[in-house]
Amino acid sequence: MSTDSTLNEEEAREQLLDLAADFYDQFAEGDVPKMQIPTRTKSNIEYDEDEDVWVYGDRSSTRSAKSVSGAQKLLKATYTIDFLADQLDQDRSSTLRELYYLSESWDLDEAQFNTQDESNNLIEDLEIVSEVKREDFHMRPEESGAKVMGPLLIREQTRRGDREIHCQKDVGQGGYQIPNNPDTIEFLENDAEFVLAVETGGMRDRLVENGFDDEFDCIVVHLGGQPARATRRLTKRMHDELDLPVTVFTDGDPWSYRIFGSVAYGSIKSAHLSAYLATPEAQFIGIQPADIVEYDLPTDPLSDSDVNALESELEDPRFQTDYWEEQIELQLEIEKKSEQQSLAARGLDFVTDSYLPTRLEEMNVI
Fold it and tell me: 205: which of 14, 59, 251, 362 lies 20 to 30 Å off by Cα?
């Protein structure tokens, strides 16, 4: 799959139709139609030394018309390809949620989706097999709400023409909202020193209110929980094209460590796009289990699911480093977790005046 540029509509349409034509050719040759898909599980993730990210391995599963369920999956794929080709013809776009509902209007009940998870998974299958990113066939997720605030001037392509936006001077306190396809953004001027990707909206608001982006020439990216693909893509572009260090600031729990992992190394569901989305050089800034101990932060006890998740991460190839093994083992020992906002126990300005500057210096970012 090409990760360097956006396909134009005609190229994307042709690659999708080639996939449908392959089904037809299998029919014509007397073969039972099938489609091979990489197995999207942790056990099928392997390290790509060239790209420094985690990608799918050689294991695959087969969607085959030999079974009724397999035939229905291929039928749904064919109907979806037809819809996407028409959408590209008309220069329209739709959301993943809309696709699920749109299928109810298709003339065969067997082609309609039973759940949105089913339609989402099919879009991922088509991405992998056709080598076309969903952004290139104009499929959008629901709004992620992710925002950017910092000393960066961009040019954005819109249906009403190009517009220039400064991500501090031309936006309100909410910041600049990341579009579905950040490859339509052109970087014009940049006065930033680094990127700080922040998990929660509350912490993002604290940093902006305290002027952290101004004082430290920092681009604050709100991840909005588990970050959307557009957020990860823009973060990677700022690192690769603007040569900016990327740091990731999350809660101190196993689920938040996975947010860091998706930014740095990619996620299981989108491992076929790791070279396009992941920023392997990203560094984790906190909350560290060591911070919980050092700053005596307010905490909650680890739940059984937290413990299981931490133990799973010790086996996760994305976390098999000395740093992560030390931190995770410490957390299992103290049996505590802590949120970003717990730093407010030391005052509302502690995070911007003390905690982050100290960590950034330790990490040689400032």
Answer: 362
